[in-house]
Amino acid sequence: MKAIIDYLRKISGGKLTQKQVDATDKLINVATAYDVADMLGIAIDSDMSVSSVGIQLITSFEDLKLEAYDDGVGVWTIGYGTTIYPNGVAVKKGNSCTLEQAKSFFQHDLRRFQTAVNDAVNIPLSQNQFDALVSLAYNIGTNAFKTSILVKYLNALDYKAAADQFLVWNKAGGSVLNGLVRRREAERALFLKK
C-alpha cells in the first residue's frame, strides 16, 4: 500500500490529501476483493439476478394472497408481498388480482429489488449473498436497504458485520415479530453459505 501511495504522490507532484489516500485505499480493497473473488470462483457481475434459491426464500415468507390485506402495520399488500403496482399506484384495501397478475407483480418487484441491490453494493457477491440481500430489500424496501448499516459494512468489505446486521431488521411497527426473526435468520444463513 505504501509503495502505491508513494507512486501516486510522485505522479501527482507531491502531496496527497487524506481524502485521496482514503479513496485509493478503498479502491485497492475493492480491487483486492475482486481478485480474491476471481480466485475463489465467485461470479463478479454488476448486474446479478436472483436465483431460484432466492425466489424460493422470498416466496416462502411472502404468502400468495389474491385479495389485498393489511401487513400488520398499515401497509396494504397483495400477491407475493406487492405494495406498489408496476404503474406506481399503491395497493389499497379492497383490491384483488388474478394469479397471473400476482406473478407479473412479483416479477416486477424482483427486478426493482435486484436493481436496488446491484446499485447499492459495490463489491463482489456470491449468488447466495445476492439472493439473501434481494430477499431483505424485498421485505424492508429499497430506501431502507440502500441506507442501511448492513450495506455500509458490506461495501467496507466487512462481510461478518454485514451478516450480523440482517438480525437487526426483525421489527414491524416497533415490535419484534417471530416471522421476521425467522426470515432474518434464514437470510443471514443463506448470506453466510458458501
From TrEMBL:
GO annotation terms (biological process): cell wall macromolecule catabolic process; defense response to bacterium; killing of cells of another organism; peptidoglycan catabolic process
Keywords for the protein's UniProt record, in alphabetical order: Antimicrobial, Bacteriolytic enzyme, Glycosidase, Host cytoplasm, Hydrolase
Record's catalysed reaction(s): Hydrolysis of (1->4)-beta-linkages between N-acetylmuramic acid and N-acetyl-D-glucosamine residues in a peptidoglycan and between N-acetyl-D-glucosamine residues in chitodextrins
GO terms assigned for molecular function: lysozyme activity
Enzyme Commission designation: 3.2.1.17
Keyword Electron transport assigned: no
InterPro entries reported in the protein's UniProt record: Bacteriophage_GH24, Endolysin_autolysin, Endolysin_T4_type, Glyco_hydro_24, Lysozyme-like_dom_sf, Lysozyme_dom_sf
Cross-referenced HAMAP family: ENDOLYSIN_T4
PANTHER family: LYSOZYME RRRD-RELATED (PTHR38107:SF3), PTHR38107
UniProt record similarity statement: Belongs to the glycosyl hydrolase 24 family.
Name this protein carries in UniProt: Lysozyme
Species: Acinetobacter tjernbergiae DSM 14971 = CIP 107465
